[in-house]
Amino acid sequence: MLNLMSSLFRRLSQKxxxxxxxxxxxxxxxxxxxxxxxxxxxxxxxxxxxPILILASPVSDVVMESxxxxxxxxxxxxxxxxxxxxxxNHRTEAEKKWFVRHPDYMTRVLTRAQRYLPYIxxxxxxxxxxxxxxxxxxxxxxxDPFAYSHGRAAGLWQMIPGTAKRxxxxxxxxxxxxxxxxxxxxxxxxxxxxxxxxxxxxxxxAIASYNSGEGNVRRAIRRNNSANKPIDFxxxxxxxxxxxxxxxxxxxxxxxxxxAKYNLTLPVVVDVPQFKVANIGGQLDxxxxxxxxxxxxxxxxxxxxxxxxxxxxxSGPHNLVMPIDVADEFIAxxxxxxxxxxxxxxxxxxxxxxxxxxxxxxxxxxxSRIRSANNLKDNTIRAGHHLTIPVATKPLSYYSKSADARLxxxxxxxxxxxxxxxxxxxxxxxxxxGQRYKVTTRQLSAWNGMAPRDxxxxxxxxxxxTHESMAPRTxxxxxxxxxxxxxxxxxxxxxxxxxxxRKFRVGINQIAQWNxxxxxQLLQPGQKLTMYVDVTAQSS
Length: 540
Hints:
This protein has 540 residues and is mainly alpha-helical. The protein folds into five domains: 2-56 and 274-340, no CATH class; 74-262, Lysozyme; 344-388, Roll (Membrane-bound Lytic Murein Transglycosylase D, Chain A), CATH 3.10.350; 413-470, LysM domain (Membrane-bound Lytic Murein Transglycosylase D, Chain A, Roll); 477-537, LysM domain (Membrane-bound Lytic Murein Transglycosylase D, Chain A, Roll), CATH 3.10.350.10. The chain is built from 23 helices and nine strands. The chain has helices spanning 2-19, 21-40, 74-81, 90-101, 103-113, 117-127, 136-141, 161-166, 181-198, 203-212, 214-226, 240-257, 286-293, 297-303, 327-334, 356-362, 367-373, 403-412, 430-437, 441-447, 476-480, 497-504, 508-515; strands at residues 52-55, 275-279, 319-323, 344-349, 386-391, 418-423, 461-466, 484-490, 528-534. The termini are far apart.
């Protein structure tokens, strides 16, 4: 950290010398903003691939406005770029009253927006789109890239999986581009441009379509056309959420346009790029990235919320967003690390009965990653052979904003009622489980970091908070239901806990608990296992 600070001050001195006395104000304010943001942030070849730095915004490191003091004000730039035309409406007035009554919300959201807003504004300017759209992430996610809604929408722009795929966003176990500020902003603005054309140049109807889908708005327009009614947004019959969605955005526009009119003081959002994007050329452990940049791993995740796990996606994108004030130091340090050292490699000896999926789960990686690292054509592995597996350099608990860590935090949050653990069985859904425990599907999904329409996999652990008095259960048969039967299974050659669990549609942890064995223990042919099996699930 001392080396990092020395480097920062060296770069600062060089820039001050170049800018003169006036530059002192600009640079110090820019550095102060960056440091406050950081403090508050919650088989490979040996060839070194030279990273490439790409400015995340077309403006320079320090933006000089016409005003002679300080860097540019992003909110002032927004006001100058407002171009939406609309009529006053009582729905907008109602939304404005809510924001005026909650000034702390505006302060909190705009402070959080500092990291992303300058980039989004620059992208809107580049496309000549209304700058009001930079306020849309407030309506969608409160500028929280980790936001996830009951409708399966994620990220700053709250895109659902289908729309994200339609506009080229990658989503897999390693990476969800809906949360990445670069990917999601590109896709969201592409979608909004498409909706603007689809709605014949009507921005309010385009914004409504972003929330409700172009089909719903198009049908509402057709209904009004058939009835010889106007087809402007205010005249359309739309779902309640959409009917308030556009007014909420317009309320924000009016408040940002003239906060003094509403007796509000908004925080300063400095119009200075907050990050740079580095091409890292391959998979990189995020803990190592944090160490090289001299920041904590929370900061790396805040700038790279698209990464779900302990590293970047092995198959790309091979980009990492870094705070602008440490990006150069990060690149210099990364150049000293060979490709083979950018993740830790572990040698694993395949045991009898082990499946490649079990090994992937054990090391918190994917089957495809193990296959590519070991040049395997399929999932066939042989006992006694060795596999080279990329693994995290730190304990998984260290990666505080990975998908697993975020889920654990959600599930461990204290709520009212009794906390129970439910293992999903074949045929179960959020609705059937909710009925059993007398909770709603929305509650159940939210407690487990999911959406009500997400698919539940057999054996998945769900946390349930219920006020229902659950009767004491004296045996696994009673605990699992009336259609559960106890049986004894004899382990065969090639069997593993994973294969047996899948065969009988139960969880690996359940088998281990029933038989008081370690779930990582190697099974022996002839070994007897006690099983409690739902007979209704075996024929489906």
